[in-house]
Amino acid sequence: MNDSAPEQGGQTPPPSSQPPSFGGVGGGNSAVILTVFAVICLVVYGYRTITRVFTFITSVFGWLMSFTGLFYLVANLLLVVGGVWMCLMLLMVAFRRNPANSNGLILCLAGGGLVNIVARVLLLLVTLIFVRYPGSAVAVFQNLLVTVMGAVVTVGGVYAIIRFVLGESVLESLDGEALSRDMNQAFASFSQTAGEVGAQASQAAQEAQARRAAQQAQQEAQRQAAYSQNNSFEQQPGPVPPQPGYAPFHLKTDRSILAYILLNLVTCGIYGWYFIYALARDVNVVCDGDGRRTAGLVKLILLSMITCGFYQIYWMYSLGNRLASNAPRYGQNFQENGTTVLLWYLVGALLCGIGPLVAMNIIIKNTNTLCGAYNFRHGI
Fold first, then answer.
1. Which of 79, 124, 134, 212 could potentially form a cystine with 119 if both were Cys, beta carbons 3.0 to 4.6 Å apart?
2. Environment class of residue 368 by beta-carbon count within 10 Å: exposed (0-12), middle (13-18) or buried (19+)?
């Protein structure tokens, strides 16, 4: 997408007058199959892990009150750790896999599945030894079978897609040195991704601090101007209000769906609230003057509660239309509008919950592009 024209006659081509593009992602159809499969597994494991976390938190005190409860405590802690690990590895498979780290990621997935199976076996043994009610053992055994099937389907599906759909050679060499090298490559990819996410979180915190400092300085200047006016014998002009489109900070252009998913998972959804707040604020700056305003976090939460979630759908639809209608102001043209976002959000939700993620990715990509164009135009 960003390939420039080749140089002719040894001269550097003149810089383009168009602002740079942000947020584009491409990939072949075969790679999309692996991404979709990994995201489906991620949704399943994420849901089960979240329910297990709440069960663990609400029952930890009761487990500590008995000797048998200690075994349940350890087993459920292993299930939480194994579930979080599987979610992280599936994120890596979906968005950061490459031929160099494929073996390591498959091995890491197998390790997470093994941890879950061991935890379920421990729960079954404790239930058989200490619980006399047969129905409890049957339910625990059923959960064990579901865990084994889930691990087999996840690991086997990822392996089969990489091996037979993408045509890559995986797990051909199983000697200790090769396994160690593959694991190190997977951990290196994971560390790099975690570092990028941490850098984005740190940048977001620094930008928020800079905005607060700018707002405080502006308020202090207004107070000083008002004080001087009230204590002067002559009428003094008031502070000059900011012009339409003015922003005392650099708008964020590197939001990503991967960081959105991962930070939401790590913070149990708290990051999603800040994300909506920051996104609505930046969109209102970029699209200022079009006669509309995107609702912020508080209004979105309240109206969504009152309308049983329908306002959130309308919010996404309106935001998609607003971004598309303001794109020509910055020399851009978006193929996706509110209707596209709405279809992905509603109809795409039938694809094991993938549709809303695609809709959010469209919003993120188009917002990145307009924020980049805004920064380019204003020289910030």
1. 79
2. buried
The CA distance from 367 to 254, in Å, is 10
The answer to whether the CB of 299 falls within 8 A of the CB of 342 is no
Tokens describing residue 241: 């209000």
What 3-state class would DSSP assign to 100?
Answer: coil
pTM of the model: 0.49
Tell me if 25 sits within 8 A of 85, measured CB to CB.
no
Over residues 261-281, the mean pLDDT reads 84
Q: Give the integer Cα–Cα distance in Å for 278 and 212.
A: 13
Weakest-pLDDT range from 214-223, 235-244, 319-328, 360-369: 235-244
CA dihedral defined by 341, 345, 348, 349, rounded to 10 degrees?
170
pLDDT digits (tens, 9 = 90+) for 221-263: 766 665 565 554 444 443 333 344 444 567 888 888 888 888 8
Please report which residue ranges of 162-256 form alpha helices under DSSP H.
176-230
Read off the pLDDT of residues 74-120 as tens digits, 9 standing for 90 and up. 888 899 899 999 998 998 898 888 888 888 889 899 999 999 999 99
Q: What are the structure tokens assigned to 215, written together?
A: 């707002």
